Amino acid sequence: MFHAEKVQVPIEDAGGRRHGYVEIQVLGGGPGSSAAPLLDRRADPELEAGVAGVQLLEGREYHYSIVLETVVPQAEVTTDRPEIFRPDPWPRLTGRIRPGVYTGTLPVGVFVDGRRIGGFELEVRAAKLDYLSHYRWMLRDLADTFAEIIMRSFAPARTRFTFRTDADAPTLYQRFAFLRSIMAGDAFEAAMTHILARPAREGREEGQLRPAGQPIPGGPRVARAVARSGPRVPWPGRTGAAVVDSLPARMPVRRTFETYDTLPNRFVKHVLMQWRNTVTDIADALAAAPDSLTAERGRREAAGVLARLDEVLAQPLFRQAGPLTQSPAGNQVLEKRTGYRDMYKLFVQSELAAMLSWSGGDDVYSAGQKDVAVLYEYWVFIQLARMVSSLCQAPLPLEQLLEHGEAGLDLRLKQGRHRVLKGWLERRGRKLELELWYNRTFRRGQGHGSWTRSLRPDCSLRIRVPGYHGDQDEVWLHFDAKYRIDSIREFFTDDAAPSEDAEAEAAARPVPEDLLKMHAYRDAIRRSSGAYVIYPGNEDQVLFRYHEILPGLGAFALRPHRDGEAQGLGAVRGFLSAVLDHVATQVSQHERHRYWEREIFAEAPPDQHKADAVPFLTRPPEDTRVLLGYVRDDAHYRWIQETGLYNMRADDRTGSVGLGSEQLAAEIVVLYGPSLSHASLWRVAGDPRLLTMERMRELGYPNPRSTAYYCLPVEPVAPVPDWLGRLSSPAVESVVRRLSPDSAKGAPVPATWARLLAAAAVGN
């Protein structure tokens, strides 16, 4: 209805004098969107207060022309928004408008030869059609959350705060933004609809004096009144049995009637009046503040809220209600009836929200912006904090986000400044310690940082779990809020083609780099097992790298809603609960992977002998068990060759091995001894065998002296690696001394192929 291809916006000074106009026209191209690129809503009666009538669309490109009517430029024409208005060469009256990711009211000052002649306002809309509703709902949710925290943690018995109007314009506007999110929200409108449709009323009685002769209801009061002294009149209609011959001149009666002047209605009127006074104070303070974009925007929006409050207060219901003269605490209507109960809650929230100042609000609504994407990041962190807290036995201390300041309570939540909340819980017999971080920077080179470059996810969850041998293991999950993603397909697409305007593409639409960033978080930040996008859509998708929930990547839909309950909470909360179960269990493949990864990379490896690869290994050298076996003499070596067995003592004699010894798990046997000039290489070809002395004699073993022997079935390996073939028996014996200096001479010594390589390299 309000779609336009070209609009003209007047350039006016502070006094309303017109000095020309700027003509804006849509240029082709730009990312696709269902939203119209240019709207002219100046004639729309439903235009929201504080919102400019001429509206652009983020990420689109426009052509502008400035036409001056009262001045002639001698040098150049400029604006105070050079990052958005890109002029052509002199006289710089035409150019391109590229709002990029900017959203909200865009005030523009026009300068001729360095002197400001006036300005105009535009509104830059987000590509999502419902972004204004999301913006209001998220501000409301933040106000609700921190109002609840203040009630719980900053009780009036311990500290008192008063609303101050001597703060600067940004602080006043921050508070007004919270208050406005409550007063202009759907909850307020719904509450007023219920109250006006079904107002609380009550029956009352009042006394009257009626002249004798008029109808008077009977009852005990009449008998007492007849007998009372005072002015009386004759009773001509008395009967013979009457005791009295006169009646009081005026008879008292009680009249019953219904009224809307009730305590609940007085309370609602009191709330509306108090809100009006508060907004008036803010408007007056902003009017007295130095001129600025924030002050001007606050004045306009305050005027809109005041108009709405005046409209409600003009209803007949509130004209009948008197002033509040008693405390409403304990009133059943305020506590239980729909509408009144909601107004009571909104009043408490507004009182507490008025105490807040928020430095991070500059990122959201400074200088006219409505940066819904930044607000979504803050909102997602609070939603995650509440979800994680609900899973903990020791809830996260959200009150740590609030600190005492000079003007009340400061909300310490700002982009680029990390915050951390800690809690714990028990799952599957293990105590898990949780840390939820906002904007933690993982720097390169730090022990728990990134091994490539510094990275800063929006939110990070560290789960600490008891490990083994007294160690503590930890798992990191990372979450990035992506408000501009509409669909999972945009995130997990394989065929995204770059647009002609790379800047516009990066500004307004998701690109494959978003997915690559998730990979970077998971793969570059040490001990990270998952990275996930949170976006205001409708679909969830989690990708498993192997068979279990971690390690993984994914995306979750989470969006604000008019009723205050975020949509998608159940899926995210279920995922977090499943992750906690997964980390707590000891039988997961992920736990085993983390254990061996720490074991393998706990220390830097020693310099290894630069030996060629060999084909007979079935595992990496560090995992291939080797037995360094002593050969007593020629007869012993011939017996090994003939029987295909290598024997080790299995009784109590020196050099014996036990049933669970490493020697019996060997895969490779390296033989050495005085009868061998060089090492001899054999492969274990079967399970160990336990043989008695009698059986060894039957097999021809020369001079058995132990009562039992463990024998490994072996077969020769060919070809023998060059470095091993050159290793003499004395050299092997020196390797044995280095690997096991306390072992008895001739005792079998366990090793690995890697340790043998390293020891042989030292020996050479």
Q: What does the model show?
A:
The protein has 4 domains: 6-127, Immunoglobulin-like; 162-199 and 262-354, no CATH class; 382-399 and 421-492 and 510-597, no CATH class; 621-763, ph1033 like domains (ph1033 like fold, Roll). The radius of gyration is 42 Å and the shape is elongated. A 7-stranded mixed sheet has the order 18-19-20-21-22-24-23, with helices on both faces. By secondary structure, it is an alpha+beta fold.
Keywords:
alpha+beta; seven-stranded mixed beta sheet; Immunoglobulin-like; single chain; 764 residues
Radius of gyration: 42 Å
Structural class: alpha+beta
The main sheet orders its strands as 18-19-20-21-22-24-23
The helix count comes to: 21
- Tell me the distance between the termini: 88 Å
**Extended strand count:** 31
Name the shape in a single word.
elongated
Poorly predicted parts? 155-164, 496-511
Strand residue percentage = 15-25%
The largest sheet is: 7 strands, mixed
* Helicity level: 25-40%
Number of domains: 4
What average pLDDT do the residues reach?
84
Could you write a compact summary of the structure shown?
The protein has 764 residues and is α+β, with helices and mostly antiparallel strands. 32% of the residues lie in helices and 25% in strands. The protein has 4 domains: 122 residues, Immunoglobulin-like (Sandwich); 131 residues, no CATH class; 178 residues, no CATH class; 143 residues, ph1033 like fold.
List the helices and strands and how they pair.
Layout (H helix, E strand, L loop, with lengths): L5 E7 L5 E9 L12 E2 L13 E4 L4 E7 L8 E3 L5 E3 L6 E4 L6 E9 L2 E11 L5 H23 L15 H15 L2 H12 L4 E10 L8 H7 L5 E3 L11 E3 L1 E10 L3 H26 L4 H21 L2 H5 L11 H5 L3 H14 L2 E3 L2 H5 L6 H20 L10 E4 L2 E4 L7 E9 L2 E9 L20 E8 L5 E10 L6 H4 L10 H7 L3 H13 L3 E8 L5 E4 L7 E6 L11 H16 L4 H13 L23 E6 L3 H10 L1 E5 L18 E5 L7 E5 L4 E4 H6 L9 E9 L5 H4 L3 H11 L9 E4 H11 L1
Parallel strand pairs: 4-10, 15-17, 21-22, 22-24, 25-27
Antiparallel strand pairs: 1-2, 2-5, 3-4, 5-8, 6-9, 7-8, 9-10, 11-14, 12-13, 16-17, 18-19, 19-20, 20-21, 23-24, 25-31, 26-30, 27-28, 28-30, 29-30
Helix pairs in contact: 1-2, 1-9, 1-11, 2-5, 2-6, 2-9, 3-9, 5-6, 5-9, 11-15, 20-21
